[in-house]
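Ticket #4471: structure export looks truncated?
Reporter: QA, pipeline team
Priority: medium

Steps to reproduce: submit the single chain below to the structure queue and open the exported record.
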Amino acid sequence: MLKTITDDSFLKKLFNRKYKTNIVVRECDLERLPFAKKVEYAFYRISGFHFDKARLTIQYWDDINRITSIFKKYNICDYKIQRDYNGKSTPGLIDIYFEKGDFNNDFFRDILTKHYGYELAKNDMLSVCLFYAIEAETEITLFHLYDDRGFREYSYVF
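Actual output as written to the record:
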């Protein structure tokens, strides 16, 4: 099986730790950081990875127009709504793909701010959960930014 960030079954197995070898798991506990430092730490940790391809998956429990307005603000046009949020417990799902060199740091910092600020009841935030997958020559890394407490990093090393 070819392992790639476009393969949902591979990412799900990586996320659920179904692979027993070639895996590195790292947990980043951000609870003791103030809000601004949480955002900056996650931003610098994740944006520092060099990649060939990347995929940002956004699970959302919010109005789709609020999310797509952020996309318009940063000229993010290449996204796909995989599932709409129906107002119940099942979240909506959006995928955005990036190639090397077209990653928008301002957009990523803004979406991290809105993600981490939601749990802290800050104004103008979004109810989202972020999954960021990076494909490089020697590894695939998946970041799960689950709430204001931190994130997990799962790397599959070739």
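Status: closed, not a bug. The export was complete when the record was re-opened. Leaving a note from the reviewer for reference: The mean pLDDT is 93.
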